[in-house]
Design a protein that fits this description.
Elements (H helix, E strand, L loop, with lengths): L1 E5 L2 E4 L20 E4 L1 H17 L2 E7 L5 H10 L3 E5 L9 H12 L6 E5 L10 H9 L3 E11 L2 E7 L5 E7 L2 E5 L11 H7 L3 E5 L39 H14 L6
Parallel strand pairs: 1-4, 1-6, 4-5, 5-11, 6-10, 7-10
Antiparallel strand pairs: 2-3, 7-8, 8-9
């Protein structure tokens, strides 16, 4: 089974103070730790699990600068067979559609049964690249995937829906599957894996290598333009009710009644 997995190198902002750049188009990266996108970590693991079960090859692809090779090396150390990085100054300002065009240009000439992506990225949270890539390639797709069972040119796919519901469907391969966290248990990178990763192929491509022009990416080739990033202001603080249960219940009832939230 031939599998492609698309990954993204993102900053870890969970415990960091995020500072917006003066142009209000990005965040200051100094002092931030970077690594593989959380959802993509599960996508990589699912790809490797399938290779171990069915045989074949796993190719990891990312779009980014030299620093994003750390994420690709992590994929290779876990068990991916080779990796591809696409870098070009013209990619600055690309939205999900433009990035999907780049991935499509790289992947369309490859042999593949499944393309895995994460359900979304931790830096922008758009959740659009996987579905857009599938449409550009003209193949089926499913998002928020929590289980995959390949069978005779098709795959039985479980999807997470709102309200704790689950959808089970049959999808024709090849297909793009955007996986949800929790689909598996990502493995740790072993010392042996790190050593083997150094010997595996990591190819770097530019836009000209994949047949795209600068006008097809960046802000010119995007459907969305980032106008401004800002940190939402804190408008109201939470009110903590203290005292005995009966006392706090009375206070809460009074607040709800005052705000018209208790039917008369």
């Amino acid at each position: 089974m031939k599998i492609v997995v698309c990954v993204k190198h993102v900053p870890d902002t969970a415990e960091a103070d995020v500072v917006i750049t003066p142009d209000k188009k990005g965040i200051k990266k100094e002092g931030l730790a970077f690594g593989i996108n959380e959802w993509d970590e599960y996508a990589v693991e699912e790809a490797i699990l399938m290779k171990e079960k069915y045989g074949g090859e796993v190719v990891a692809i990312t779009i980014g600068g030299k620093e994003s090779e750390d994420t690709l090396r992590r994929c290779l150390a876990k068990g991916a067979d080779r990796a591809i990085r696409i870098e070009d100054p013209a990619l600055e300002g690309s939205d999900a559609y433009a990035l999907a065009k780049v991935l499509c240009a790289v992947i369309k000439g490859m042999e593949y049964d499944i393309i895995f992506t994460g359900a979304q990225a931790g830096d922008d949270g758009f959740g659009q690249v996987g579905q857009t890539l599938a449409e550009l390639l003209g193949i089926p797709h499913a998002a928020l995937v929590t289980k995959v069972e390949p069978q005779d040119g098709k795959a039985k796919v479980h999807r997470e829906l709102e309200g704790g519901l689950e959808e089970v469907l049959e999808i024709q391969l090849p297909a793009v599957l955007a996986v949800q966290t929790g689909i598996n248990e990502p493995r740790y990178v072993s010392i042996m894996g790190i050593r083997k990763a150094k010997k595996k192929e990591l190819k770097v491509l530019s836009l000209s290598d994949i047949g795209l022009s600068p006008d097809e990416v960046g802000e010119k080739g995007s459907l969305l333009t980032l106008e401004e990033l800002y940190i939402p202001p804190v408008e109201k603080m939470a009110e903590i009710l203290t005292g005995a249960p009966d006392e706090t219940a009375t206070k809460l009832a009074g607040i709800l009644d005052e705000r018209g939230l208790i039917p008369k």
